[in-house]
Amino acid sequence: MGKLYFYNTLGREKDLFMPLSNGKVLVYTCGPTVYHYAHIGNLRAFVFADILNNTLKQNGYTVKHQINITDVGHLVSDDDDGEDKMEKGSLREGKSVWEIAELYTQAFFEDLLDLNIDKDKFIWTKATDYIPEQIEMVKALEEKGYTYKTEDGIYFDTSKFPKYTELANIDIEGLQKGKRIADDKNEKRNKTDFALWKFSPKNEKRQMEWDSPWGIGFPGWHIECSSMSRAVLGEHIDIHTGGIDLIPVHHTNEIAQSEASLEDGHRFVNYWMHVNFLNADKEKMSKSSGDFLRLLSIKEKNISPLSYRYLLLMTHYRKELKFSWESLDAADNAYQKLIKKFKAIVENGKERVSLNELSFEANNYKEAFENAMNDDLNTSMALAKMWSLINDKNISDKEKHTLILYFDKYLGLNLSHEKNKV
RNA sequence: GGUGCGAUGGCGAAGUGGCUCAACGCUGCGGUUUGCAAAACCGCCAUUCGCGGGUUCGAAUCCCGCUCGCACCUCCA
């Protein structure tokens, strides 16, 4: 097992990775919401999760990696009578909310397949399959005195959890009025308090609603990750990943729920890893429906989705990526060239050598590549090492063949198969 | 208002004190090859790392100040 260093959002520095139990790593990734198609920005988080998963495995760990699917609708923010996004989608498309969830879940899985992400590596859990667990957790929090009831739901009292600001470094006083916290009409005690259970609106039948000790309703949107991760991975997990936007609200709330319901002082998560955003050149990557770039848009331009994956690997995951068609073209050129070069290498060096009988020089490339990946998943550096290897005339094609296939176990660029268009 | 991130060649991007007077890829340019072209191959393309100071034998890398840009806090990852 090599030495892995990960940048931890909690503490904001690169730490040596030490798993909770020997040889086994528990990972949780915040997954998609399934009332719309994923745009390519969403997908960045899952390519990252995939690379992380690969790297852990290459380092000899057994990885148990869970991703949730948010199929419960939650209220559209601002106004009180805001519609639920699932229900809204249902209305829009004339399908039941369950059909909506299924439709977009399948579309999401297709995107993963296109990106060479084997979905079977992960344990997928749907929020609607874990309603009893979510209710249990809310009950536990209630028993410990962390909750209170208002007209529209059961809320978590964040003032009772002193470490609340730890992850995001939130200045509660500084939170501006008029933003999400402004709805003082719903009797929230603190600006940062959030719903654990929401009551169904009176005189209205929702398509998704469940009975609970507090009345008919549906879970708050943070509780699903806390309770599902506990159900599948246990109370303590090694690594939790997600988009950078989840830090201040969602992950902060997750920590509060999970740790408040544990014994004092126990950490819910040891390493928090956050993927930066991909932003479009001109238009902002759209948040809700509307126009946004799908993987399909890339395919329609006859560009391989794996070229998009290559583009993602060109930049470090913690760095913002500005998407443009120019940069995707550059990535596509590089990726297609890589495939060609690799094919030529395979033809000249058909039989491979074993990884432990590499020449000294070839082994240097192996180590340089591993070091790059193990240093907080520096894929950009790793790609550079791969190119240097390809261009090195002193290494035999047999060894190159061996090494590139090995590298691709980390990178997942599907270099060994023929499904790529050339 | 709060929080966080960033500024490196035409573009993307690595590099956190000496092995980098700056990797790797894309583009471009010159050449070899070719009937021409494409492809392939060979070669070239930042004395410089936003600006101004400072620390040091030595800084893109550390410190101070400044300028500019971006993101999140509105259920986008």
Layout of strands and helices, then pairs:
Elements: E1 5-8, E2 13-16, E3 24-29, H1 40-58, E4 62-69, H2 85-93, H3 97-114, E5 123-126, H4 131-143, E6 147-149, E7 153-156, E8 194-199, E9 217-219, H5 223-233, E10 237-243, H6 247-260, E11 269-275, E12 278-280, H7 295-300, H8 305-314, E13 321-323, H9 325-348, H10 360-374, H11 379-391, H12 397-411
Parallel strand pairs: 3-4, 3-10, 4-5, 10-11, 12-13
Antiparallel strand pairs: 1-2, 6-7, 7-8, 8-9
The chain binds one RNA strand of 77 nucleotides through helix 1, strand 10, helix 6, helix 9 and helix 11.
How would you concisely characterize the structure shown here?
The protein is of the alpha/beta class.
Could you please describe the fold and organization of this structure?
With 422 residues, the protein is α/β, with parallel strands linked by helices. The protein is 40% helix and 15% strand. It contains twelve helices and 13 strands. It has helices at residues 40-58, 85-93, 97-114, 131-143, 223-233, 247-260, 295-300, 305-314, 325-348, 360-374, 379-391, 397-411, and strands at residues 5-8, 13-16, 24-29, 62-69, 123-126, 147-149, 153-156, 194-199, 217-219, 237-243, 269-275, 278-280, 321-323. The strands form four sheets. It has a five-stranded parallel β-sheet, with helices on both faces. Strands 6-7-8-9 form a four-stranded antiparallel β-sheet, covered by helices on one side. Helix 2 (85-93) crosses helix 3 (97-114), helix 8 crosses helix 9 (325-348) and helix 11 packs antiparallel against helix 12. The longest helix is centred in the last third of the chain and has 24 residues, at 325-348. The model is unreliable at 77-81 and 177-184 (pLDDT under 50). It binds one RNA strand of 77 nucleotides through helix 1, strand 10, helix 6, helix 9 and helix 11.
